[in-house]
Amino acid sequence: MPITTTNPVTGEVLKTFDALTKEQIDAAIGRSVEAFRELRGTTFAQRSQWMRAAADLLDKEQDELGALMTLEMGKTLSAAKAEVTKCAKACRFYADNAEQFLADETVDAASVNATQAGTRYDPLGPVLAVMPWNFPLWQAMRFAAPALMAGNTGLLKHASNVPQTALYLGELFGRAGFPAGAFQTLLVGSDAVEDILSDDRVRAATLTGSEGAGRSIAAIAGRELKKTVLELGGSDPFIVLPSADLDKAAEVATTARCQNNGQSCIAAKRFIVHAEVYDAFVDKFVATMSALTVGDPMDDDTDVGPLATEQGRTDIEEQVADAVSKGATVRCGGVRGDGDGWFYPPTVVTDLTTDMRMYAEEVFGPVAGVYRAGSLDEAIEIANSSPYGLGSNAWTNDPQERDRLIRTLDAGAVFINGMVTSFPQLPFGGVKNSGYGRELSAAGIREFCNLKAVWVGEGGDTGVDSKTE
Ligand code: NAP
């Protein structure tokens, strides 16, 4: 994939970049190692000060940065600006909490025949971060803020269609005061990932992206015995039960499906509606989806901009066509408009069956698949039949149903009467084909740390039979 800024509103290529050479990549990894040596010796207080300075820069540059993201991948300008604010908050969250999350812990020293015993978290070193274009700042920040606060350094291989946002990120932390080389952008294609991850100096990798990219990176990391965190695709269920507030559910369902022009891993994608309220909910949902304004993402009135790439639009068109050819019904949308750009209208598809691609695949655009469930059991069964397990939404005012859903949905998150979103305070990640490991919260910062056991005694006698481990 060429490294270019291409405006998805017009399809026009605005800027093209050369990929780094092998020598340039080698030098960047060397700088990352140097920066790691320096960074791991700094205090939390120092790193917090730099991280707060990065947050201040984001706040100050919100307008330009927001416009840049909109230009490169088509999200609405208001959403892009909100993303910048969210990133500044995450920087401050880790500036405030990293020290506590990574504090040394003690265990009862006598119980292990020591005078002092416990654990500490050490950073691992340079970490490769392979990131997607859909939240081009936020996805990278979810890695960068905790990683740098832990004392790791970062090498960002961003998606090839957001190079200018990537370059901004590559400068940000140095401008905020972090040592040169602590966080660098490598403008490279995905074909360079194997060599970078195989380099002994790179200690771990995180990927946010598709299932295919996840399998590839996990295979390389497995061969190289390197720790990975994988944040992959999702096909989140949105279950609507009879006690739900249907107006509110339809309104939130529309936002949950069409946020970020339908291109969010945690967008609600499968709407599973109890038969008792199926017709009423679907009518309301079709009305709210149809009422959205599709247009130029720079305009304040626009709700849904273009898909980020031409291929992305082709993919959802093919998924809808496949469903229709097998008997599904398009209740609204379903046909792209005339004109330039990769626009696709908010679409609701009903009468889906298990043989359709939409049933099992992730649909990465503003297309909602609706399923009818005869009971709570059937709703949970449909929800859990997906190969993915990222987030899950359920709407009910019945406490017993709520408890059951919280316990039985196979997903990394369950949101009752609200839409799945990410908070720095809560862990984020998935199960099944949505990947493994967690970002955000205390769990996120600990992923790329060495949890070191510390034992201090007098004379080396651990009190344990030397024939055991
Ligand atoms: P993608 O094609 O997998 O690309 C993501 C990143 O991986 C890009 O930097 C890409 O580089 C690189 N890449 C692609 N194939 C690779 C390979 N075989 N080996 C190494 N690197 C590779 O995904 P996308 O289309 O950008 O993003 C959409 C996907 O990301 C969706 O499935 C979405 O659900 C998922 N996502 C998940 C989360 C989460 O937190 N779980 C969040 C956001 C998005 P190039 O651009 O150079 O190809």
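^ NAP complex. The chain has 15 helices and 20 strands. The first helix runs from residue 22 to 39.
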